[in-house]
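Treating backbone geometry as a discrete language has practical consequences that deserve illustration. The amino acid sequence and the backbone structure tokens for this protein are reproduced below.
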Amino acid sequence: MASSDGATTSATEPLVHRKDLADAMRARGSRPLLAVDLGVPRNIAGDAGKVGNVFLHSIDSLETLIERNLRRR
């Protein structure tokens, strides 16, 4: 099971970058990481989701997932 971290601050620029998550993933081994960025503007850089085994969701992607699941019902 993936562990998860959520992030939201009043920062005007991302606080977590791709390198930060790449470094963290090296320490995690093969365990996946779910990162949920609730900040507007974003607190986690968008390219951070390109790190292997990192699943990055923003408030916008969560809205899309919710709408898709509601249509399936």
In short: DSSP finds two helices and three strands in the chain. The helical segments are 18-28, 59-72. The mean pLDDT is 89.
